[in-house]
Structure to design on (616 residues):
């Protein structure tokens, strides 16, 4: 297992290298000018010498490859440059916000898995029954619905209409102290919307897996031995029906990041996904580049986790991959 | 004898098959009707109605849905039904162009990788894997941020993030076609590699590539609306459904739900209809696989 982990990480390194280079190449090909972005409105009145000096200071007079290499070597030591929109080092922005994003994403992910599994097993018991048809129709609709739209409607209903939950942010406006109760009540709505928008995929996989497993020989054997329907469903069909979903659980990281980009923005959640959108709107290249690479790393970790989980859940699979 | 003992499961299977087929045809007809209605609305309404969807009437601002305005009006008194139809028109156009570009790129890359094989194949597919490990919306955001919001950056960013799956599908299809006897026959007949690819392999993968393209349209629309919602998409004078939801945020926080609700429904209904049609198509070209919604 350790061998496979090491091997997969060895494969991940070149992917990350190519992605960082791609980020720099796209920026170099675009009309984006880091000097103008750095100087802002002052750049309009500054003399050409000042701008040239700035260009040299920022290192953008160099070619693409040395610039990329310089960024990479300082990134390894933890220096990711300065964010122009946050007016702070990129590394600080990430360390401060990463925890909130992880909290939101994990809560939503766990919610999506639990909800999707429970509904999937319930629907698989009677394929074509009213529960199956109703939940499946809802799942397809949710899968087609944009997450930001769901978030806005949730704000309207729960925060404005019923006035039971806060509409956004991390704490109530006016209070700077982050307490557990405040964070918990502010977490409910974004995590629920993100979780529900991720749920259909889990539901459809579990439903299919369990429904298929219910037709297989072990289940027929268990029924013939006279085991109760409950035991058959939960200890036989459920376990093997979960396998296809487990193998792909890690591959949901990109969708989770996509959802977080939208949900964090809608709910003004102070995480890195909302920061990514802010960085993009104000063309903050150092922050945007670092966050893009970070998201790619998260996807690669997700893929690895997926393989490991599969090996743990299904003893027939070896770890030699 | 064996037939009679096995008749109960057989009968059950047949009965289930029949009922499934009837729900399938209901789904096909409904989906086709919705897609047709959407196409009609988008193509015919704008030239026929001759109404200005940008017409501002502050006396009628934020009217709830009524007979005169079935979807209500927005914060400057524009009719939302008309705005939604125009928004769908923009979203659909961007989605179609992006899906077309992505399919052409994906088919070309996938077919080339499979036809050349060896090192080309390995390098190209590694690159596809690398590209896929950046979350698509994030890559789209990055491209649009660097190239400024606008129609073409949005189309390019959606197309560049969507060709990967088509490349994979086309590659595996070409690989499986290449092993068939008629390709051997063409090779022994002295056809060039280029001729085999263009005349024998590409026509074989077109149904699969076409299916991927159709399924990509709603996905591309979704992508565009997300970018527009984040303020990184289309300019507001070319309002797509995403722009409509974005501009409705202020009204929503004041308690008016209709400017947010309807643009979203306009995105969901065509998506479900296109996915339904594509599901029927997939079952026809690929009858053994079970239908699932690919989004």
């Amino acid at each position: 297992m350790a061998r496979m982990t090491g091997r997969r990480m060895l494969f991940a390194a070149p992917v990350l290298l190519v992605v960082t280079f791609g980020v720099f190449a796209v920026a170099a090909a675009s009309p984006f000018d880091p000097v103008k972005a750095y100087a802002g409105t002052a750049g309009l009145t500054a003399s050409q010498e000042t701008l040239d000096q700035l260009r040299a200071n920022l290192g953008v007079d160099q070619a693409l490859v040395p610039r990329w290499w310089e960024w990479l070597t300082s990134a390894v030591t933890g220096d990711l440059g300065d964010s122009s929109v946050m007016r702070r080092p990129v590394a600080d922005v990430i360390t401060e916000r990463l925890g909130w994003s992880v909290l939101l994403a994990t809560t939503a992910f766990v919610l999506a898995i639990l909800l999707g599994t429970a509904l999937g097993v319930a629907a698989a018991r009677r394929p074509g029954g009213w529960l199956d048809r109703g939940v499946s129709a809802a799942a397809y609709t949710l899968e087609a619905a944009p997450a930001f739209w769901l978030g806005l409607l949730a704000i309207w209903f729960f925060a404005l209409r019923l006035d039971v939950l806060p509409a956004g942010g991390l704490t109530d406006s006016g209070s700077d102290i982050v307490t557990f109760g405040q964070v918990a009540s502010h977490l409910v709505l974004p995590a629920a919307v993100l979780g529900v928008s991720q749920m259909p995929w889990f539901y459809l996989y579990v439903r299919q897996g369990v429904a298929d497993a219910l037709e297989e020989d072990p289940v027929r054997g268990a029924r013939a031995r006279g085991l109760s329907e409950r035991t058959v469903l939960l200890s036989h069909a459920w376990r093997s029906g979960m396998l296809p979903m487990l193998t792909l659980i890690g591959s949901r990281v990109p969708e989770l990041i996509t959802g977080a980009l939208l949900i964090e923005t809608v709910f003004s959640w102070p995480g890195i996904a909302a920061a990514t959108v802010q960085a993009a709107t104000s063309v903050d290249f150092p922050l945007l580049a670092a966050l893009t690479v970070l998201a790619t790393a998260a996807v690669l970790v997700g893929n690895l986790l997926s393989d490991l989980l599969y090996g743990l859940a299904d003893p027939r699979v070896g770890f030699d991959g | 004898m064996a037939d009679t003992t096995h008749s109960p499961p057989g009968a059950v299977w047949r009965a289930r098959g029949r009922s499934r087929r009837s729900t399938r045809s209901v789904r096909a007809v409904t989906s086709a009707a919705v897609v047709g209605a959407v196409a009609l609305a988008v193509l015919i309404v704008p030239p026929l109605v001759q109404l200005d969807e940008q017409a501002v009437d502050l006396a009628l601002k934020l009217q709830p849905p009524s007979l005169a305005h079935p979807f209500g009006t927005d914060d400057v008194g524009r009719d939302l039904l008309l705005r939604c139809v125009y928004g769908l028109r923009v979203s659909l156009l961007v989605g179609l162009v992006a899906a077309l570009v992505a399919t052409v790129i994906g088919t070309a890359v996938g077919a080339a990788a499979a036809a050349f094989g060896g090192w080309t194949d390995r390098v190209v597919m590694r690159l596809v894997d690398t590209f896929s490990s950046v979350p698509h919306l994030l890559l789209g955001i990055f491209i649009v941020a660097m190239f400024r919001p606008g129609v073409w950056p949005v189309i390019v960013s959606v197309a560049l993030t969507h060709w990967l799956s088509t490349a994979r599908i086309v590659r595996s299809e070409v690989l499986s076609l290449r092993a068939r006897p008629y390709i051997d026959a063409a090779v022994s007949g002295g056809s060039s590699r280029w001729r085999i690819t263009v005349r024998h392999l590409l026509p074989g993968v077109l149904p699969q590539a076409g299916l991927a393209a159709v399924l990509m349209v709603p996905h591309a629309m979704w992508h565009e609306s997300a970018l527009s919602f984040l303020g990184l998409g289309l300019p507001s004078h070319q309002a797509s459904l995403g722009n409509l939801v974005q501009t409705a945020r202020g009204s929503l926080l004041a308690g008016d739900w209709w400017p947010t609700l309807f643009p979203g429904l306009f995105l969901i209904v065509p998506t479900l209809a296109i996915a339904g049609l594509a599901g029927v198509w997939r079952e026809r070209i690929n009858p053994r696989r079970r239908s699932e919604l690919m989004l």
User: Anything to note?
Assistant: Chain B touches chain A through 49 residues (CB under 8 Å).
